[in-house]
Amino acid sequence: MTAFVNLFSPVRIGSMKAKNRLLMSAMSINFGVDDKGWVNEQLTEYFVARARGGVGMMLVGGGAVHPTGLELPQLPALWDDGCIPALEKMVAAVKPFDCCFGVQLMHGGRQSYHDKTVAPSPIPALAVVKSIPKELTIDGIHEMVNAFGDAARRCYQAGFDFIEIHGGHGYLINQFMAPNSNKRTDVYGGSFKNRIRFLLELFRDIKSKCGADFPVGVRINGKDYIENGWTLEEALKLSVILEKEGADYLHISAGIYGSKQLSIPSMYVEHGCFTHLAAAIKNEVSIPVVAVGRIKTPELADLIIKTGKADIIAMGRALLADPELPQKARTGNVTAIRPCIGCCLGCIHAVLAQEPGGCVVNPDVGREYLLKTDEPAAAVYNVLVTGAGPAGMAAARMAALRGHRVTVCEQNGQLGGALRLAAAVPGRSEINDVIKFLARELQRLNVEIRLNTPLSDTLIRTIDPDTVILATGSLPDMPMLKGLFKTKMDLCTVTDVLDQQSTVGDTVIVLGGNQTGLVLADYLSTRNKTVAVLHRKAHFAEEMSSNDRYYLRERLKQDNITLYKPVVIDTFLADGVQFHIGEESVTLKNFDTVVIADNMTPVREAANLLRNKDINIHIIGDAKSPRHLMYAMNEAEEIGRTL
Ligand SMILES: Cc1cc2nc3c(=O)[nH]c(=O)nc-3n(C[C@H](O)[C@H](O)[C@H](O)COP(=O)(O)O)c2cc1C
Ligand code: SF4
User: Fold this and answer.
1) Ligand 1 atom with least separation from CA of 253
2) Catalytic residues, which ones?
3) CB 119 less than 6 A from any atom of ligand 2
4) Residue-wise over 538-555: b if at least 16 C-beta within 10 A, else e?
């Protein structure tokens, strides 16, 4: 029986019919091309995995139509006919899976990562990319129009089913459309009609080169969320025009680099955050409208279609986290879906750092071509995992998937380790989804879990393991700072506070401005505490993704929170602290509590119990070296796979 009947009903897009209404949106994943920018096996297998997972439509993206528009170095280059054979091979590999396969055409304009950027006007991007773009001449604009048409023709020749034009997110087309980035005084600037001219010209060029029947959708912003940017009123007007021009679908996203609402929002933003924009457009047109933005569950996807807010649901990150989401949803196996947690760290943060994109909860992203077979282990071992944080649980899952007998022992009464505490602060409960997923998986795979059970000689004798995986995590490190141990303020750690082992007074000094310190400040502020965060480094929470940090920093703009950096502590006082920021000396007084939330130190005392025993030992996650979740998950699966 098919669950989510609205989502899994077929949909027609022009001459194309898709088996369901799930579209994997274009994601510039920054891997899988050779030195010419032509797609290779790595990208192909990444898409094959998702097509096999049952998605109805997917988009390669963003394919650069012109060298000046290459947003990131490792994106498909579509400006030369030489790209066609590799694209053909990719199309052929996806063909058996009944998935409509398209390409998103983009030109990054001023938001491209190189120093030869072009744009409608010489105004630099508002964030992320710093170079000043060259203003396009009229000839230059015509060259770009042609480039879009030619790139589309190459995709058509390679056998793709459809094309999407990227007219949103502050890239070149959007730069023409928005008044704040287009100051031209010729026929491509000024009035609404002039600002959309570039898009209409390239749309017509694509249709003329690929034929009117070849489906072409357009992704636009429902709104830029920026002063003097593209507005919903303009998007409504444009949608009607695009329908008349012959657009086969409209895909409604939002935001640009530096906008108030980001195009790729983090866990702080509500699910379905841009659906209202799609719904407004859907009222104006009769071609299919795609909604996108933090739609990660089949329940919400189905509801959006059922309530007529959109015809198609685009998912991006949810399909990075679990390529098989569609299949699992369709068969009602929703609890088996590996959830995206909206951290933005493995995917967009990596990509914007010009590294290959990945996923914190799914270490397989980009490695699909290396992992074509998941063979059972040659011999079955007794595996004991100590520590049921994310690393321990993920290692146990992978070991059990390979057929080993696995026991997990955890000294606390709950699963999740430090991740459980990371989810206990405002706006971050979505992190719990990954703990719940791993817990369900361990249950499904018959992994024995022993809570309130630290590693002991008795346990080792009882289980008699061949292998022990030590995933005992980390704890806050007590710093050696003058006066800290003599102060009359209460002293505790972030772990104590979030685990509710310690209470804090009304005025709190948080020592450390990494993610842990900042989310703690947020937590304390919502409990009406006055908080001073002292950070010794030049930047706050550098280990967070910039998208996620952006929303956290907005939350921290409260009267009862003060952030200080870079701080050199002189001494703690009976009720406060004295420190320097550069030349300036600062004294804070009348504080009740100091919470240590800075460096973490690995916990691996349990390893002593394993000495001189004939047992393989692997130390993973924070117990090996405290780092962020992606490393823990990666290491865990790697170990699980090699047992
Ligand atoms: C790594 C990454 C790269 C992206 N690259 C593109 C892109 O090339 N073109 C585009 O239109 N959107 C791009 N996006 C945005 C997604 O298509 C999507 O709109 C966004 O992630 C919100 O949807 P989601 O919440 O389902 O992930 C990218 C997103 C991610 C995570
Ligand atoms: S890295 Fe984080 S936001 Fe990105 S897909 Fe994975 S879980 Fe989702």
Assistant:
1) 19
2) 171
3) no
4) eebbeebbbbbbbbbeeb
- Give the CATH superfamily of 382-475+602-642: NAD(P)-binding Rossmann-like Domain (3.40.50.720)
pLDDT along the chain (643 residues), means of 10: 91 97 97 96 97 98 93 92 98 97 97 91 87 94 98 98 98 97 97 98 98 97 96 98 98 93 95 98 98 97 98 98 97 96 95 93 94 78 96 96 95 94 96 96 96 94 95 91 94 93 92 96 96 96 93 94 97 97 96 94 88 89 90 91 87
- CB of residue 263 inside a 6 A radius of ligand 1: yes
What 3-state DSSP class applies to 523?
helix
Which residue has the CA at smallest separation from atom 29 of ligand 1? 27
* 3-state SS track over 193-222: HHHCHHHHHHHHHHHHHHCCCCCEEEEEEE
**Structural domain boundaries in the chain:** 11-370, 382-475+602-642, 479-598
Ligand 1 within 6 A of 561 CB? Answer: no
Ligand 2 centroid to Cα of residue 407, in Å, is 28
Among protein residues, the one whose CA lies closest to atom 10 of ligand 1: 26
Class of the domain covering 11-370: alpha beta
Of ligand 2's listed atoms, the one at least distance from the Cα of 362 is 6
Binding site membership of 72 for ligand 2 (Cβ less than 6 Å): no
Residue that has been written with the tokens 């009769």 in this structure:
286
Contacts (Cβ under 8 Å, ≥6 apart) of 327: 53, 54
Question: Considering the entire predicted model, what is its pTM?
Answer: 0.95
CATH topology of domain 479-598: FAD/NAD(P)-binding domain (3.50.50)
Residues in Cβ contact with 24 at an 8 Å cutoff, skipping those fewer than 6 apart? 50, 55, 57, 58, 59, 314, 315, 316, 319
* Residue from 266, 269, 359, 362 to probe ligand 2 pocket by mutation (most atoms less than 8 Å from CB): 359
